[in-house]
Write a structure and sequence with these properties.
Length: about 650
């Protein structure tokens, strides 16, 4: 029940954009049946019926224009019977025009399809029995041969007052054809062309803004969906540049290869990018296997189509493009509807966006095929569908990020609650341990009083006491907040590691780690947030140390200390830099905002000399940490003591 209002709202937006793009045309087109008559009021004639056609397999340049009039048979044909097909050989069209107005006038004959390779236009005036010059054009012809350098093909024709003329058009093309033939009064055409240029500018401007906006979002959030979306928009821009003739006129006019292949290449690229975007945006790998296989089929197919476009001839691409495009659109819609039914929120947006594109494309194809009268609404139907599709998909991407942010904040709140529960359980465990110690002490006094009579019972109780004391000692070595070793246990371990390094003649290194600006976190966000910060940093250091023999302890406050046995100072620097980078990538969210976390690290390491204590090594690491903080924080600084210690040992050996 809630889906109908949503679709109604988007339908209203769609209609509004169509009206905005279409505007008010300078004059309504006149559709003729069997004859074309120019009157004093005529400004625009659509040539869609009343045509005669003649097809020949001979090359176009070999046609003898003077004999065209006598060629037979000339068959009647409506323009819609030619559209959507690939030409076989050379096709000649002719139509007759009678000027019943009182003025000769200046007229332009427009062929509104940019993907025609070769065009010849000639006019025969019956009363004068005279032929006009033979006009030659086409997308393979130099731009200098195009009248007014227009993106479509224009031919200036003269229709003397009260005279009958026949216009002959010869066409050659290896691509699918959607012809639009029209006669324009010169002034009316240029007014129409200004409106047309404005609408195209709006369309390409909107798509360019969408492309740059989403590329910038990708650079900031590093979400691959924005990158795939940007590729999709770019492919559509290139496809529309080819379909409207703007690309062939202004961008790749010097490339004969692109003139032949641009339409098919960029159409295939748009379907490939749409297939990739659908795959990752809807996360189809998380659903049924048949969806993934269906998507794989079209990924492989459109990739092969692009490769085929790179190597002529294009006959395979021309034959397969439209059927494959229809199948790809149907498969995409079926996938979206299925995932929507499965509860995929993103699929809902994608389906709505697809429906507008389907409607716009259908209106365009119906107009191009002549099934419905061609008008600005049909010409701009697909463009309007593209604009709405990209707007809806942008809204969907923004909604997705907002939803993921809320989920992440919810997870962090749950993690904080869990940490509080763990802390309370730890305190209760300590209280229980204290009570156990009291009971044990009382038991010990009672056993001492009864030692003579209960020696065996006393020995058993002492064994149980030693076990309990060992467990208590283990617990006393753990920092309650971070669950890593504490300073007490470090003081016990460091001397053992130092003596072992001396005995084995191996270096030992230490790294002192300090959280930068930790006091600000406590002061501004509270001690609970500060505690969470300490836990995150401790867990990150523990995961990225690398070896099980490395030792990590909380040294005090926001400081941590690491012992790296059998590790020289330069290797310890590598480990420290890895730890610093790992902390810097922590995604710490508090109060709805990301709090940057960095650490400063001081590193010192050498082979201990006889009689040397760990205090000097710890002091050297502390001095290096001081320099790291003084030099701007978020860095690793090595101790200068390493060199002096090496020289000292060398002198001792000598």
């Amino acid at each position: 029940m809630k889906k109908k209002p949503i679709i109604s709202i988007w339908a209203a937006i769609y209609c509004g954009l169509v009206v905005l793009l279409v505007g008010i045309d300078v004059s309504a087109p006149v559709y003729a049946e069997d004859r074309f008559v120019i009157t004093d009021e005529t400004r625009h004639l659509v040539i869609d019926k009343g045509l005669r056609v003649h097809t020949t397999q001979a090359p176009l340049d070999a046609m003898d224009i003077a004999d065209i009039l006598h060629l037979s048979p000339w068959q009647p044909m409506a323009l819609k019977d030619l559209n959507g097909k690939q030409l076989a050989g050379t096709v000649w069209l002719r139509f007759e025009v009678t000027n019943d107005s009182g003025a000769d006038g200046s007229w332009l004959f427009e062929i509104g399809w940019p993907l025609l390779n070769h065009i010849r236009v000639v006019q025969y005036q019956h009363s004068r029995k005279a032929w006009s010059p033979l006009y030659q054009s086409g997308d393979m012809a130099p731009l200098a041969k195009r009248f007014a350098g227009h993106r479509y093909f224009l031919f200036p024709l003269a229709f003397p007052s009260h005279e009958r003329s026949t216009v002959y058009i010869g066409l050659e093309s290896k691509q699918i054809m959607f012809l639009h033939l029209a006669l324009w009064h010169s002034d009316a055409f240029w007014i129409h062309d200004r409106h047309d240029t404005f609408y195209l500018g709006v369309f390409f401007g909107v798509l360019a803004v969408m492309l740059l906006y989403n590329l910038s979002l990708y650079l900031f959030v590093r979400d691959s969906n924005y990158l795939f979306y940007s590729f999709y928009v770019l492919a559509i821009i290139l496809y529309e540049l080819a379909a409207t003739g703007i690309g062939g006129r202004y961008i790749w006019h010097a490339s004969a290869w692109l003139k032949q292949t641009a339409y098919f290449l960029f159409a295939s690229a748009s379907f490939l990018s749409a297939t990739i975007f659908l795959r990752y945006f809807l996360a189809i790998k998380n659903y049924d296997a048949w969806l993934v296989r269906l998507n794989d089929i079209f990924l492989i197919y459109w990739t092969l189509m692009i490769l085929v476009c790179l190597f002529p001839p294009l006959s395979i691409v021309v034959a397969m493009l439209n059927p494959a495009a229809a199948l790809s659109l149907v498969a995409g819609l079926v996938s979206c509807l299925y995932l929507w039914a499965k509860g995929n929120i993103q699929a809902k947006y994608y389906t709505i966006a697809y429906l507008f594109l389907y409607v716009g494309t259908a209106v365009l194809l119906l107009g191009l095929s002549g099934i419905i009268p061609r008008s600005p609404i049909t010409d701009y139907g697909q463009m309007t569908g593209f604009v709405i599709e990209f707007v809806v998909l942008s809204i969907a991407l923004a909604e997705r990020i907002n939803r993921e942010r809320k989920d992440r904040e919810k997870a962090q709140r749950m993690s904080l609650k869990l940490s509080k529960k763990i802390s309370r359980a730890h305190k209760e465990r300590l209280l229980a341990q204290e009570q156990v110690l009291k009971v044990q002490h009382q038991a010990k006094e009672e056993l001492e009083q009864q030692v003579a009579s209960r020696t065996q019972a006393l020995q058993q109780a002492m064994q149980e006491l030693e076990i309990a004391n060992q467990k208590l000692a283990d617990l006393s070595y753990t920092d309650q907040l971070t669950n890593i070793f504490n300073r007490r246990y470090f003081d016990k371990i460091v001397l053992d590691e130092f003596n072992r390094a001396h005995r084995n003649g191996q270096p030992v290194s230490m790294a002192l780690v300090d959280i930068d600006h930790f006091k600000k976190v406590n002061d501004n966000l509270g001690h609970l947030t500060g505690d969470e910060c300490l836990r995150l940093v401790a867990n990150t250091l523990r995961r990225h140390m690398g070896r099980t023999t490395d030792f990590l302890a909380r040294y005090g406050g926001e400081e941590f200390i690491i012992i790296l046995p059998s590790t020289p100072q330069d290797q310890a620097m590598t480990v420290a830099n890895r730890l610093r980078s790992a902390v810097e990538t922590i995604d710490f969210i508090a109060g709805g905002k990301r709090i940057p976390l960095t650490v400063s690290i001081g590193v010192a390491g050498w082979i201990p000399t006889p009689g040397e204590t760990p205090a000097r090594l710890i002091q050297a690491a502390d001095d290096a940490l001081y320099r790291a903080k003084a030099n701007g924080r978020n860095r690793v600084v090595a101790s200068h003591e390493n060199t002096s210690n090496t020289e000292h040992r060398t002198s001792n050996v000598e």
